[in-house]
Amino acid sequence: MLEHGAVAPQLFNGLVLGAFYAIVAIGLSLIMNLTGTINMAHGSFMTLAGYLAYAMVSRGTSFWFALLVAPIIALIVAVVIERTLIRRLYGRDPVYSLLLTFGLSLIAEGIYHKVFTANSVPFSPPPALAGTVALGFMNFPAYRLFIVFVLVVVFVLLALFLNYTRFGLRLRAAVQDTEMITALGTNTQVLYAINFGLGILLAGIAGVLASGLLGLNPTSGNTLLMPAFVTVIICGMGSLYGSLVGGLLIGVAQSLMTLFIPPASEVVMYVLMAVVLTIRPRGLFGEEGVFG
Amino acid sequence: MSEGAPAGPLLVVEGLNTSYGKISILRDVSFAVGAGEVVALLGLNGAGKTTTIRSVLGLTPPRSGSIRFDGLEIAGRPPYRVAQLGVGYVPEGRRMFKDLTTLENLQLAENGRRGDWTIARVLEHLPKLAELRSRKAGRLSGGEQEMLAIGRALVSNPRLLLVDEPSQGLAPLIVEDVYRILAELKAHGVAILLVEQNALLALKLADRAFVLDSGKIVYSGSASELRADRERIRALMGLTDAAVEAAAPPPAP
C-alpha cells in the first residue's frame, strides 16, 4: 500500500492541473457555445501568451506585469484573427472553422519553432514564489498555490461578468437565440469578437501560469488542450460550474493515477470520457441540443 | 375606426421582393404604415406575412425593393440597426430567452433608445410581469410569455411594433388580454404592423388592412370595410363560413 503522505500532495497537484483544465475548457466552451467554433488554435494562444511573457521577463520586465499584459496581447491578436478569418465561417458546418483553426495552430507552431527553437525555454516563476508554503499537514510549492489563487480569482470575476453585466446578459441570451438578440438591437458581431477574445484571455492567463510550471515550448499549450476538450465533452457545454467540476475531476484523476498505475495517467481521462458518454451522451451538466 | 391617414407615413415599403434561396416568397409587395396607425397584414399560412416582417427588420434581407422608415432607407441594413432606429419586434412563437428571468428578458431590449417606456413603466403597465419578474421565462404560461414579448419590445421605445401572430396558441380569454394591451399601445400612439391568422380579430384593432396571397398583395384598404364584408374575407383568404364565424369575436354586449 502507498503511504498516506504521498496521496495528499498528488491530490493537490491534481487540483492545480485541474484548475488549468477548467479555465481552458471554459474558454473553449464559451467560443463553441456562441459560434459553434471548435477552436483548435486555443493551445497556440496559450503558448503565444507564454512566449510573450517569457520575452518580456527575459528583457527585464517583472513577472507580474507580464502575467497581466501577455494575455491581453494574446486577446488582441485573437480578436484580429477572429475578425479577419474565423468570422467568415460562422453559420457554416463546424468542420470549416475546425480546419481553419487547426491550420492556424500549425502556422503558429512553425513560427514559435523558428523564433524560439523546438527546445523548451527557461521560464521560471519569480523568486517571491519560489519556495514552499507550510500547509500544516504538508509543504506545498508557493507557485502552485499562487496558480490556484489566480485561477480562482479569474473564475469568480468571469462568473460575475457573465451574471451581472449587460454584456454578460447578452452573451447568455445570444447562446440561446442569436437572431432574436440582434432583432432586439444588439450587434452580434461585437458579441462574437468580445466572446472570442474573452476565451483567449482565459487561455492566455493559463498559458503564462502553466509555462512556469510545465515548461514552455512550441507545443506546450497543446498538452493542456486535449484534457480541456475532454473536460468540455465530459461536462457538456455551456456550464461554467460544470467545466470547473470536470476540469478538477480530470486533473485529480490523472494525478492520483500517476501514484497507482503511472502509465495509465494519460489514458484515464479518455476512460472517464467513454464512461460518461456511454451513460449520458450530452455530458454530465449539458443540456440537450445545446450544440444546435 | 376611421382611416387615419397621417401625413408622411412612418414605414413605406415599395416593390419588395424577397426569396429564400431560389424560392421567391414576396413579389412586388408595397404598403405603408402611418405614424400611430395599426395595419393588419392578413393571409393564409405561407402567404408571406412573416417574411414581410422579417424583411422589414432585416432578418431576411429583401432581394430588391425599398423599405423606408421615417424617411430613411433601411432595406438590407442589419437587424440591430433597424431595431435601434425604433422598430420593435414581437415574434411568432414569442421566442423567449427561456433560461433568463422575466426581468432579464426585459433588460436585453434596453438598447439606448430613450423614451417613455422604461422597464419600471412596462412592469407598471403589465403588473402580471412585475409579479413574475424573477421567474425564468421558460416557466411562464403562453399568455404571460406573449405579454413579456410585447413588454420586451416596448422597452426599446419603438415607434413601430412588428407583431407576428400574437394570438397563436393562446386561450380566447388570454387573446382578449393581449389585444387589450395592443389597443392600449395604439392609444399611446405606437404604430403597429400586425400579422394575424385570426382576420376578424386583427381587423377589429386595425385602421387599414392588407391581404397577402402567394407573396402578392391582393387587397389593400380600410379595415372596417373589410371586416364588414365577410364574403370578401372568405374570397380573399379561402376560409369556409365556419372558419370565419369561429374566428369572429364574441358578440358585442
Overall description:
- The complex is a heterodimer of chains A (292) and B (253).
- Chain A has 292 residues and is mainly α.
- Chain A has a single domain (4-279), classed as ABC transporter involved in vitamin B12 uptake, BtuC (Orthogonal Bundle).
- Helices cover 72% and strands 2% of the residues of chain A.
- Chain A has helices at residues 4-35, 42-58, 63-84, 94-116, 142-164, 166-176, 178-183, 188-214, 220-235, 240-260, 268-279; strands spanning 132-134, 139-141.
- In chain A, strands 1-2 form a two-stranded antiparallel sheet.
- In chain A, a hairpin with a 4-residue loop joins strand 1 (132-134) and strand 2.
- In chain A, helix 1 packs parallel to helix 5 (142-164) and helix 1 crosses helix 9 (220-235).
- Chain A is globular, with a radius of gyration of 19 Å.
- The termini of chain A are far apart.
- Chain B is an alpha/beta fold and 253 residues long.
- Chain B has one domain (11-246): Rossmann fold, CATH 3.40.50.300.
- Chain B has helices at 49-57, 79-85, 102-107, 119-125, 127-131, 142-155, 172-187, 199-205, 223-228, 230-237, 241-247, and strands at residues 11-20, 23-33, 38-43, 64-69, 72-73, 87-90, 160-164, 191-195, 208-213, 216-222.
- In chain B, the strands form 2 sheets. In chain B, strands 6-7-8-3-9-10 form a 6-stranded mixed sheet, sandwiched between helices. Chain B has a 4-stranded antiparallel sheet with strand order 2-1-4-5, covered by helices on one side.
- In chain B, strand 7 (160-164), helix 7 and strand 8 (191-195) form a beta-alpha-beta unit.
- The longest helix of chain B has 16 residues, at 172-187.
- Chain B is globular and about 45 Å long.
- Mean pLDDT of chain B is 89; it is low at 1-6.
- The interface between A and B is medium-sized, with 17 and 24 residues.
